[in-house]
């Protein structure tokens, strides 16, 4: 049984980060909404209560009965989690005089307290709260302060319960990982045995049990998530898995052929479907970005459905959904925020059960699992690429001729990034074909041709992004190559917008 830490999410933006930090310690953890504590099969070693956008005395504050948890598990409350435990036990939480936000330093660390093992006086921490604990209840002891916060951390005497008002999960808290390790390993006794290899072993066994001899279909996109999901399932159920890779005609240059070849080398049972004519005819004359997305999404479902029906007795649809796609983050209004899905509606329409073997992994863990499964590095480190492909990078109407121009320009840019050792330094890159023609001169001839924009960004999760500071020499070379080699393009620009307020894609 895989031991774990349970993180209860009270709606903080950094809850996922707590999960990542714990996993980085090779300790397995799961995040649950604050009021949905899971059934314990004997694997839960400790509980972390996250921060929250609410104040504990707010009418709408998320509250739970702590007794069933505190009598059974070690608990670490972070920010709101700490304030809530103190408040529920009769302590005082009040608005902080000045908002306690930003860097601070630990002082007065209680010697011998296991939560601060190996953490020195003066260690930098990150504060971010509008409230502060002004009085702790009987039985609680203060174990650290900062220059402006008296009760930065406390311990409940005789119990395995701790609270910290700062955020150990954020990068700016220098010894944050050490603190989380002190809790998870030192206090909860976790063994740090969570690894890609152990994940593969347990998941393959679970999949075999869950799927038995059932047939499964999976849509491949060329991206890392669906590819890793496919290889994992292939290891579990072999030829009972059929993968379908649809070419909508708007993939990168030679991508369909190359990726199909990679998949075949991995031993996957894969059907490649060239449906480009269907998509081009449905997209003819369409310029509105959302309509393009809808047409492609629906077309994809049609093609996939048709192919899947050719396979007899399929019972499951597998998808490469990953953890950040499915964590139910609680927004201030309590509504559920979910990421977009290209194939929303597919499971319902096909009347299949859903199998998502990566649903508990973060992106970097998916990559580690892929490596452990022996997948080639270029599949694993591949940049994200939108489901609708180049369709959202051709502004205005899509034609095969425009796709061809863009594929050539994009290929020069991406190959250049690889040659110059820059590919892995950016999160994502591509070229956008603008609906603009401009005057140029080539030899003695006046030209009136298309303009393209290069886009390259750095990011950690695509929620925010900054334009990549690519070297001028590199940009000069790429621009020169595109203008000289791609017929129909006479101008290259570089997009220097960050997200927000721009987005990564132009449509
Ligand atoms: P934006 O443009 O919103 O993109 O900053 C954020 C990330 O999402 C990708 N993206 C998509 N992926 N289907 C997808 O599968 C889509 O419709 C879609 N739109 C944007 C984008 O490439 C970036 O990685």
Question: TL;DR of this structure?
Answer:
Keywords: ATP-binding, Glutamine amidotransferase, GMP biosynthesis, Ligase, Nucleotide-binding, Purine biosynthesis. The protein is built from 15 helices and 20 strands. It is an alpha/beta fold and about 500 residues long.
Helix/strand/pairing category: alpha/beta
Given the C-alpha coordinates, what overall shape results? globular
Helix content: 25-40%
The largest sheet is: 7 strands, mixed
What's the alpha carbon Rg, rounded to whole Å? 26 Å
Bound compounds: xanthosine-5'-monophosphate
Helical segment tally?
A: 15
Q: Unreliable runs, pLDDT <50, ≥5 residues?
A: 328-341
* Averaged pLDDT: 93
Number of strands: 20
Measured by DSSP, the beta-strand proportion falls in 25-35%
* Distance between the ends: 46 Å
Trace the largest sheet across and list its strands: 2-1-3-4-9-8-7
Describe this structure in words.
The protein is an alpha/beta fold and 507 residues long. It has 15 helices and 20 strands. The strands form five sheets. The chain has a seven-stranded mixed β-sheet. Helix 5 (196-211) packs across helix 6. It is globular, with a radius of gyration of 26 Å. The two termini are 46 Å apart. Residues 328-341 have low confidence and may be disordered. Xanthosine-5'-monophosphate binds next to loops. Xanthosine-5'-monophosphate is lined by residues 293, 340, 342, 384, 386-388, 428, 462, 499, 503-505. Keywords: ATP-binding, Glutamine amidotransferase, GMP biosynthesis, Ligase, Nucleotide-binding, Purine biosynthesis. ATP binds at residues 221-227. Homodimer.
């Amino acid at each position: 049984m895989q031991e774990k830490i349970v993180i209860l999410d009270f709606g903080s933006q950094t809850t996922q980060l707590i999960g990542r930090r714990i996993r980085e310690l090779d300790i397995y953890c799961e995040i649950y909404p604050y009021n949905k504590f899971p059934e314990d099969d004997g694997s839960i070693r400790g509980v972390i209560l996250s921060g929250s956008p609410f104040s504990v005395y707010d009418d709408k504050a998320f509250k739970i009965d702590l007794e069933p948890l505190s009598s059974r598990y070690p608990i670490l409350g972070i920010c709101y989690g700490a304030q809530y435990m103190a408040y529920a036990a009769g302590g005082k939480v009040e608005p902080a005089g000045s908002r306690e936000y930003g860097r601070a330093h630990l002082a007065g660390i209680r010697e011998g307290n296991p939560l601060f093992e190996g953490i020195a006086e003066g260690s930098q921490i990150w504060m971010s709260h509008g409230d502060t604990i002004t009085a702790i209840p009987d039985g609680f002891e203060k174990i650290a302060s900062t220059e402006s916060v008296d009760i930065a951390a406390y311990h409940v005497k005789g119990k395995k319960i701790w609270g910290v008002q700062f955020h150990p999960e954020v990068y700016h808290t220098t010894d944050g990982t050490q603190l989380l390790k002190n809790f998870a390993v030192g206090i909860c006794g976790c063994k740090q045995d969570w690894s890609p290899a152990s994940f593969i072993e347990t998941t393959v066994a679970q999949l075999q049990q869950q799927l038995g001899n059932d047939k499964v279909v999976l849509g491949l996109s060329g991206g890392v998530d669906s590819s890793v999901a496919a290889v994992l399932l292939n290891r579990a159920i072999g030829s009972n898995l059929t993968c379908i890779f649809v070419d909508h005609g708007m993939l990168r240059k030679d991508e369909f052929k190359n990726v199909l070849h990679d998949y075949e080398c991995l031993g996957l049972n894969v059907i490649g479907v060239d449906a480009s004519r269907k998509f081009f005819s449905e997209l003819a004359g369409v310029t509105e970005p959302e309509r393009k997305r809808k047409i492609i999404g629906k077309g994809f479902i049609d093609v996939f459905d048709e192919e899947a029906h050719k396979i007899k007795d399929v019972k499951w649809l597998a998808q490469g959904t990953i953890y950040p796609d499915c964590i139910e983050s609680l927004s201030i209004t309590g509504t559920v925020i979910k990421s977009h899905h290209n194939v929303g509606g597919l499971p319902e329409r096909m009347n299949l059960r859903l199998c998502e073997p990566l649903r508990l992994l973060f992106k970097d863990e998916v990559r580690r699992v892929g490596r452990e499964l022996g997948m080639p590095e270029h599949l694993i480190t591949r940049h994200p690429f939108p489901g609708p492909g180049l369709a959202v990078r051709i502004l205005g109407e899509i034609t095969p001729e425009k796709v061809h121009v863009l594929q050539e320009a994009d290929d020069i840019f991406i190959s250049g990034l690889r040659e110059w050792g820059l590919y892995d330094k950016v999160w994502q890159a591509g070229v956008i074909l603008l609906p603009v023609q401009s005057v140029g001169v080539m030899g003695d001839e006046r030209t009136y041709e298309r303009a393209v924009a290069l886009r390259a960004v750095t990011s950690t999760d695509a929620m925010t992004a900054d334009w990549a500071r690519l070297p001028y020499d590199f940009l000069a070379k790429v621009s020169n190559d595109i203008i000289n080699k791609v017929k129909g393009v006479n101008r290259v620009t570089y997009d220097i917008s960050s997200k927000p307020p721009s987005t990564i894609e132009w449509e």
